[in-house]
Input
Amino acid sequence: MRLIFLAILGVCLFALASYIGVGKSENPIKPVVTAHVEKIVSPPTLSKKLQKKHFILDSIFSSDFKRGLFNGCVAVSYHDTLIYQSALGFENIKCKKILCNESVFQLASVSKMFTAVSILKLAEQGKLAITDNIKKYFPDFPYQNITIKNLLSHTSGLPNYLFFYYHLPRADSVTFSNQRVLDLLTNHKPDAYFKSGRRFQYNNTNYVLLALLVEKLSGQTFQAFVQKNIFDVCGMTNSAFFSISDTLKNQAMAFDYRKRPVGTDEFDYVVGDKGVCSTPNDMLLFGKNLFEGKIISNINEAIKPHARTTYGRYYGLGFRINPNGGDTIIFHNGWWHGYRSAFQYRKSDKTTLVILSNRLDRSVYQTARIFDALDNKKDTTPENEDD
Output
């Protein structure tokens, strides 16, 4: 009897350990499994083939959550059909509010896609040409031979405001803004990294200036232009811009691995390089409308290679391009203040992945395994850059 009791006890302990995710984890905290509360059950209208893919995806993300590797929301559209959606973890760790499928995340650098599309919209309206020199619109701009295309493709060589700001005198308390970035460049002329067009170097300053250009040529705030020309066109009713003073409905608040909320700083007032907040569902709408030509008539110029990145892929005009062995994936990642985000679109079959986290979970970028699962291939880990 004692042996039987010990055997039963061992099985129970093993099951409990499996449930709470005992084992190797890159995170120093244990997940709270009860926070996994909202996900779409495989719709009965899906074919058996798609239902199988749904359950494979669910096993991947549920496993990541239980092992403490993911806190966030996911949506996957396969051949233009939503086959998986899930909310796993906490929306607000402080008050223990759980995520839902309408939880809104900061997109971080995924916001750059919206800035690029806004510029291309103005080009379509005849208000600019991407070959224009930026001095045409900002005559006092102190750097030479920099075109709009250089800004879009990160080949400008401009200094990054996130770095040079700390090396400049700060004798006033002016709220940081896009205009403030331009003023600092104009007045202090920090050294450029290289001559424009020479090579690629990812740089947030480029997209801060592009957002200013949108405002100058449209006569609207950048936020208002994006709302009218992108959010409204796509029906993105749960998308907005982050504001330090406002709290968005269902706003996912960033936290770290010690369960501490992540704060904000003066850079959060700057938009264009970041600032857009959205949900996985809204991002699926953005991708669908963008690639169907409903936001701008021709997206092809933006998603073809304009600069080679250092890790063997390419950057277009606001989009990264992964040739993927001939099966091209258009994507952008983001990383800012405790948020990580990934948007990926495969051209051949319109498969779209949106993965958003309000914790710095590296699993967000492990998207190759998702495509492999959809294609019935062995899981692998990708080699994506952070943003």
Notes: The longest strand covers residues 81-88. The longest helix spans residues 2-20. Residues 1-34, 380-384 have pLDDT under 50 and may be disordered.
